[in-house]
Each structure stands twice: as C-alpha cells, then as structure tokens.
Amino acid sequence: MLLIGFTEEPGWIRSTFNLTYRVSWETLLKGVRGVYPYMRDVSQNADNPEILVDDEIIQISSPDEILAIPEAGSITIRGFVPVIKTAAMLVFHNQVSFVNVAVGRVGEEYQNTDYEKFNKSLGQFMDSIEIMMHLTPKEDS
To answer: Which residues pair with 9 in a beta bridge?
Structure first.
C-alpha cells in the first residue's frame, strides 16, 4: 500500500493508504481476517479486536466468521497492535481503493513523526495486510 498522507491530532495520527489494486468485498474480508489474530481489544481487555460493519459493532466468535459477513459499505477492525505497539483502527471501504488508518500517538515513534518515519513505521504492516487479502486462509485441522 502507498501512504497518501497523514494528519496529526491530539492523541491520534490519521492516515490514508492506497491499495495497489481495487479489490472486492470478499478480498477486503480476507485482509481483515488476516490481521484479526494480530490485534487485541483495548476497550475490554479481551483477546479479540472489535469488528464494525458500517459503524455497528458485530460479534465474532471466530476469525473465519469474518469471511461470511454480508457485503456492506465498510468494515473496521480496531484494537491494540503489539507489532506497532499502539492502538489502531483500520477502515476498509467497499468499492474504493483506499484504507483509512488511525494510530494512537504513544511512544516516541508516533509523538514526533514525519511522512518518511511514519511510512517506515506503518508501511510494512499495511503491506502485510494487503498481501493477506490475496491469500487463502488456512483451514483449521
């Protein structure tokens, strides 16, 4: 994904990443399903992140249920991301080729940043999610 830009706000950095290719709803779901195990719920100290469809929280009991979510305008995943050491919210929009990302401004890495630092910090994580969109999830044995 390509970082288009970001803005700094009190407590958050909001950014937009362009997908390499336009993708279907099912492909977006595979990306959310792929990142699901790497996020934690910050609001309730639970293991699983929150999933929202068109800004409404939905209950997920297993990551594979994400793949069956009916088509909608957007799907959001939010929680703490240990890999980047901060809270994040990723909003995948149906029928458009960008993702909106908000990350918490915690730690030195996100307190004082510029385009280059932010891209190096978050770009690889976002690229990994895009790759997950094009992989077939493993079947449980």
So the answer is: 12
Give CB contacts under 8 A, 24+ apart, made by 111-114: 113/8, 113/13
- From the list 67, 91, 95, the residue with the least C-alpha distance to 78 is 91
Question: Can you say whether the dihedral through the CA atoms of 17, 20, 22, 23 is positive or negative?
Answer: negative
Q: What is the pLDDT of residues 41-88, one digit of tens each?
A: 876 556 789 999 999 999 998 899 999 999 999 999 999 998 898 999
**55 vs 93: CA distance, rounded Å:** 11
Question: What is the rounded average pLDDT for all residues in the chain?
Answer: 90
Structure tokens at 16: 């937009």
The span from the CA of 25 to the CA of 62, in Å, is: 19
